[in-house]
Structures are given as C-alpha cells and as structure tokens.
Amino acid sequence: MAGAPASPIEVRFLDLLFSRRAVLVALVFLSVIVVLCACAPWVARGDPDQMNVRARLTEPGAEYWLGADAFGRDVASRLLYAGRVSLGVGLGVAALSSLVGIAIGLCAGFFRRLDAPLSRLVDAMMAFPDILLAIALVSIMGGSAINVIIALSIVYAPRIARVVRASTLVIRELPFVEAATALGVTTPSIMVRHVLPNILSPIIVQATFIFAYAMLAEAGLSFLGVGIDPSTPTWGTMVNEGRQYLDQAMFLILLPGLAISISVLALQLIGDGLRDALDPRLARDL
User: Fold this and answer.
1) Buried b (16+ CB within 10 A) or exposed e, 65-101
2) What's the longest Cα–Cα distance across the chain?
3) 70-80 tens-digit pLDDT
4) CB 254 within 8 A of CB 70
5) Residue-by-residue DSSP string for 83-128
6) Burial of 126 (0-12, 13-18, 19+ CB in 10 A)
7) Strand, helix or coil at 263?
8) Taking a C-beta distance cutoff of 8 angstroms, is the pair 233, 48 a contact?
9) What is the pTM of this model?
10) How large is the average pLDDT for residues 258-279?
11) Residue 283 burial (CB count, 10 A)
C-alpha cells in the first residue's frame, strides 16, 4: 500500500528548510558523521584502546589511516568511538534541558504567581558564565557522562525556559485557550494539549543550538580535565591528550578539532534553517 502523499504544509516546510544550499550541505555532513559514529563497531578497524607502543605517533598512512597517538592507538577508531560519546552528550543535554526548560517555562508563563520567582531564578542562573557554572557542577557531582549531561542541562535549561515562558505568555491569552478554560478543561490538559503544541517551533530551534553548545562545552570540560573520565574517549579528551605533542604530531589535535568544528557548524546551520522555515514572518520573506 502506497504511503500517504505529503501535505502542502510539509512540502512548503521542506522547501523553506532546504532553500539555502548551506543547510542541505550541513545536513549531509552531520548525517555522515552520525552514521559513521553510530556504526563504529563495524566501521572502526579495531579496539580504540588497543595499544601498540612501537607505532606511537605514527603519521597517517596505509597501516593507520589517520595515524596513531602517543600510545600507539588507532586515531581513526578513537575518533569514531569518541564521536559516539560527544554526540550522545550533546543529544542528551538537548533533550534533558528541553524537558526541564519546558516545565519551568510553562509554569512561569501560565501561572502568574510563579512567574516572578521562576523568572528571577532563571535570570540568576544565566548570570553565571556557562563554562564556569558547568565546571563547578561537574566538580561537585564527579566526572562521568551522566553527570556531565546533568550539569550541562542545568546550565542550558534556562535558555529553553525563557523561550517557553515568552511564547506561553502570548498563547495563554488567545481565544482557544480561553474557550478551553470556559469549558472546564483542566489546567494541565490546557498546558499540554493546547499550549505546548503551539510553542514547539522555537523549542526545536533552541534545542538544536543547545545541542551544538553542549558539544562545545563537553569538549571544553574534557580539555580542561574536569569532564568525562579520561579513560573514555571523547573529541575533547583527544584534543587534550594531543596538545603536548603539537610539535611532533599536529594531526592528534587537528582531526578531533575538525570533527568538533564541522559538527557544531553543521548544527548551527541546521538550526538557522529550522528557524527560517518555522517562523512564518521569515518564511514570507524567503
């Protein structure tokens, strides 16, 4: 049985999303990176932690396609497995911070009594520099992937909360929300079934940017040695390990640095494309 044809709205959205070639290129690059990292057990040439001291600092060649690090470990394998952790942290932070931010933003925007205290809490959290707050939280909780995700989610949740609050303040005054209230629909049901679906667009865009910010923050924490345990390969850990061999093997920093840069840039471009496609005013201009 043939699938249902795409609706005009879906076609219009895709046309707007891919109206800029940069967005399409970014999506292709990000998809390739995600697929390669997800298939690391089948794509990688071997165990990322397998050492061969005699091959230490081997330059890229036939035996080691992307070279070997100071312990003789295959850089290509480590890049793929490290990407799984770095991308996983970014996705986890985007998801968890969105959930927390949506809860805070909906409560602040819908309940007038909670607006002031929750808004002040969000403002206080955003007053701290992101990386310093993340370092403090990770230092308290300990360096593990789960703790890094929780810490960075606490750091970035206020961004989602502010967006959700601002959108909720507008949506709650619209006639269909007033009609639902007059009909006796419960407040939680109004928030989930009527308000939330109408504010998903800015949330999706902001979550895309947070995905990129979280990857950069995780790389920064790992580079500073306060992030995920060094025994777990991440792109930031690889940069940290390779910096002391910069004059001997620049590829140890260059390759994970490129992976971080390309992934973050692709996410930013995709976020810009989503913003343009989901914003009706920008859509009319395009």
Assistant:
1) ebbbbbebbbbbbbbbbbbbbbbbbbbbbbebbbebb
2) 77
3) 888 888 899 99
4) no
5) HHHHHHHHHHHHHHHHHHHHHHHHHHHH-HHHHHHHHHHHHHHHTS
6) middle
7) helix
8) yes
9) 0.86
10) 85
11) 15
